[in-house]
């Protein structure tokens, strides 16, 4: 199939492994799904730190389940990316460990307090939900299938984060103030999660033209703001003065993008932020720690041959 035909046919779940697709499409889809899979791994790693900090056994159990979900999402997505025949799962994991692989801005910042749990679990996952819901209609069918399961589980994550936020905002005055301070720090990062309206990246236009991406950065951020500003205010959080939020003529909310630190955002997107080195290094150490499992499996596979099939 040539690129022109791909653009003409582009639509929800239009293409799959049975189609012969141009390299440009397969590479763009791989790039997008790999970024998503990497973000699931790195988000899960950040979230893992909350298990120790969680104040009760129930919270620890719920957090552990959430981390398992995130790593599961990553596995599903690496497999969905592999169906494009561009890179293997092992190659993508290696790229993440060496710092070549990219992932979402919010997961480059270190976390060190329980107050940050609702920032990731409620607001970042809430933002991710906005984006992922639109990806159920992506043109690469294995990616859309993965989104069915991912979105179902993200619904639980957001409820989990909301429950922590509600509990903390019903705490003492000092707890509420601490929560507000944490929110002030995270709010601009969360708004940048969607990227700038006029993305400098050339990848986006192509991804939309071939149906891989179905909503713009601006549409996603607006949809997030309209849904999450009322939610934040409902629990008693004040939306910071900067970056300025304004209402458009059509009644939707938007942010004054010049109020956001895009220099930091682009440094992060190149994996050059000070926190990036720490997070990627931590990922690499964990990957190295289980290298012996991979080696043992490879040795076993080459000596034992294919797994025997059970008779019916
Ligand atoms: Fe996830
Ligand atoms: Fe999640």
TrEMBL record:
<dbReference type="GO" id="GO:0010124">
    <property type="term" value="P:phenylacetate catabolic process"/>
</dbReference>
<feature type="compositionally biased region" description="Basic and acidic residues">
    <location>
        <begin position="1"/>
        <end position="12"/>
    </location>
</feature>
<dbReference type="InterPro" id="IPR007814">
    <property type="entry name" value="PaaA_PaaC"/>
</dbReference>
<dbReference type="Pfam" id="PF05138">
    <property type="entry name" value="PaaA_PaaC"/>
</dbReference>
<protein>
    <submittedName>
        <fullName>1,2-phenylacetyl-CoA epoxidase subunit A</fullName>
        <ecNumber>1.14.13.149</ecNumber>
    </submittedName>
</protein>
<dbReference type="InterPro" id="IPR012347">
    <property type="entry name" value="Ferritin-like"/>
</dbReference>
<keyword id="KW-0614">Plasmid</keyword>
<keyword id="KW-0560">Oxidoreductase</keyword>
<dbReference type="InterPro" id="IPR052703">
    <property type="entry name" value="Aromatic_CoA_ox/epox"/>
</dbReference>
<feature type="region of interest" description="Disordered">
    <location>
        <begin position="1"/>
        <end position="21"/>
    </location>
</feature>
<dbReference type="InterPro" id="IPR009078">
    <property type="entry name" value="Ferritin-like_SF"/>
</dbReference>
<dbReference type="GO" id="GO:0097266">
    <property type="term" value="F:phenylacetyl-CoA 1,2-epoxidase activity"/>
</dbReference>
<dbReference type="GO" id="GO:0005829">
    <property type="term" value="C:cytosol"/>
</dbReference>
């Amino acid at each position: 199939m040539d690129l022109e035909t791909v653009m003409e046919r582009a639509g929800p779940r239009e293409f799959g492994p049975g189609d012969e697709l141009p390299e440009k499409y397969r590479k763009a889809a791989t790039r997008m799904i790999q970024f998503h899979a990497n973000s699931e791994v790195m988000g899960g790693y950040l979230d893992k730190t909350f298990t120790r900090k969680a104040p009760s056994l129930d919270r620890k159990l719920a957090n552990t389940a959430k981390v398992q979900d995130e790593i599961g999402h990553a596995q599903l997505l690496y497999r969905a990316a592999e169906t494009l025949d561009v890179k293997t799962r092992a190659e993508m994991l290696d790229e993440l460990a060496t710092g070549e692989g990219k992932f979402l801005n919010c997961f480059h910042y270190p976390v060190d307090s329980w107050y940050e749990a609702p920032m990731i679990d409620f607001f970042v996952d809430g933002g991710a939900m906005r984006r992922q819901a639109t990806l159920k209609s992506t043109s690469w069918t294995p990616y859309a299938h993965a989104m069915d399961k991912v979105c179902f589980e993200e619904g639980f994550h957001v409820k989990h984060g909301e429950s922590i936020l509600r509990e903390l905002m019903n705490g003492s005055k000092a707890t509420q103030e601490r929560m507000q301070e944490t929110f002030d720090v995270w709010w601009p990062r969360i708004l940048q999660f969607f990227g700038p309206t006029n993305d400098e990246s050339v990848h986006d236009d192509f991804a939309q033209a071939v149906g891989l991406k179905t909503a713009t950065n601006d549409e996603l951020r607006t949809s997030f703001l309209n849904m999450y500003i009322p939610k934040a205010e409902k629990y008693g959080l004040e939306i910071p003065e900067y970056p300025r939020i304004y209402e458009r003529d059509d009644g939707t909310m938007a942010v004054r993008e010049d109020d956001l630190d895009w220099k930091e955002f682009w440094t992060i997107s190149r994996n050059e932020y000070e926190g990036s080195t720490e997070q990627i290094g931590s990922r690499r150490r964990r990957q190295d720690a289980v290298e012996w499992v991979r080696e043992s499996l490879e040795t076993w596979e080459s000596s034992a041959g294919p797994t025997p099939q059970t008779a019916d």
